[in-house]
Design a protein that fits this description.
Length: about 375
């Protein structure tokens, strides 16, 4: 059992209690799900997707705001500890997210196949839980004592506040990127709920699909996400592949919600706040890890407080990575056949795994821009 630390400097317990609650919730959900019923399975998949997105965000926050600072302290003391560098390298979050994503295909199959998938999902969740709970216990038992040893009391108090704040930002912030993700994740079931008496009387529904698509072609991706929630018909129209011939996630993460953005400049500072592209600050480069361990301390810090500017950059990377993940999971499976151009230049939230999935989901892709990224040949295997 982990020692009891003063509450104000106990960095792990509060976020871990939330993660354990999520695990208990998904175990309860999967046990009560009737996999013979398509809608039951679809509802479970949506809930599991939300759970694993939050679990992954939790790991990212720990990696960026706790483990990186701890590595800096250890390096300053000329100490090397492999456990600090590899604590998030094998928690199987990406595998679980892929399995949940596959479930949407199984949901459309006959009842027998859905039950087969259900057995596979239950076993995978059981294995993941057996791995993840001890992982959190290890962090409390091993890393919290190290934090107590190498950080001052005031530093730990500030670190705990920062970590809890970052978890709160993930859960509640209504940024344009998160709104886009939420809009993209709307299920067909929720779309059905919008078919009201007023909607049936809407004169726009009298227009032919060809004219509606012409109107929608003037909208940007963020507006498409909003239109997706109007009705089942509009949800189908906004996911017409002809409307998604080009995707520009890096521009969208910067707030430029356009299907025809100007190219990002290659000059220092152009298109990025504070000359960001000069820094080797990447979100995810290790394809065997769910959270990047390679970023390390390339920003030159050896401990201490991070500036507001740096936190803003890290926050932007998280937003970009979340937007890319939403595109791969919820948008490209429906519109990927229409995508001819994919501009990912200067992306700091990109990984080989994401590029590989984009290539699979966009079979008619003609232009792929990956300049100024750390994508390697593994993405094309």
């Amino acid at each position: 059992m982990a020692p009891h630390w003063p509450e104000e400097v106990d960095v792990f317990t509060v976020p871990h209690s939330r993660m354990k609650k999520l695990i208990n919730q998904y175990n309860s959900m999967v046990m009560s799900t009737d996999f013979r019923d398509e809608m039951h399975l679809m509802s479970l998949l949506q809930n599991l997707n939300n759970v694993f997105n939050e679990l992954k965000a939790h790991e990212r926050i720990e990696n960026i705001f706790i483990m990186r600072e701890l590595r800096s302290k250890l390096r300053a003391a000329s100490i090397s500890d492999p456990a600090v560098c590899n604590c998030h390298s094998d928690n199987r979050l990406t595998e679980m997210q892929d399995l949940v994503l596959d479930g949407y295909k199984w949901a459309k199959m006959p009842q027998r196949e859905r039950q087969m998938y259900g057995r596979k999902l239950r076993q995978a969740l059981e294995n993941f839980t057996e791995n993840f709970l001890p992982h959190m216990d290890m962090e409390e038992q091993v890393f919290q004592p190290m934090l107590m040893e190498y950080f001052s009391y005031e530093e730990l108090k500030a670190l705990k506040v920062k970590v809890i704040k970052q978890h709160g930002i993930y859960k509640y912030e209504e940024s344009s990127c998160e709104k886009f993700v939420a809009d993209s994740c709307e299920s067909e079931e929720s779309s059905d709920e919008h078919i009201t008496k007023e909607e049936k009387q809407c004169q726009l529904d009298c227009l032919p699909n060809e004219l509606c698509l012409q109107i929608l072609s003037w909208l940007g991706p963020q507006d498409m996400g909003r239109m997706n929630q109007v009705s089942r018909r509009w949800a189908n129209l906004t996911h017409d592949p002809k409307l998604w011939t080009g995707i520009f996630p890096v521009h969208w993460a910067m707030g430029n919600w356009s299907f025809h953005p100007q190219p990002l400049g290659e000059d220092a500072g152009q298109g990025w706040p504070g000359g960001w592209q000069k820094e080797q600050l990447y979100f995810c480069t290790d394809e065997d890890a769910d959270v990047d361990e390679s970023g390390g301390d390339s920003d030159g810090h050896t401990g201490g407080e991070r500036t507001d500017s740096e936190e803003g950059r890290l926050k932007h990377i998280l937003q970009e990575a979340k937007l890319l993940t939403a595109l791969v999971k919820h948008v490209l499976p429906k519109v990927g056949s229409g995508v001819r151009q994919c501009d990912l230049a200067f992306s700091r939230g990109l990984s080989n795994n994401l590029v590989h999935k984009i290539l699979k989901l966009c079979p008619n892709l003609e232009i792929l821009d990956l300049k100024q990224t750390l994508v390697g040949d593994a993405a094309f295997r």
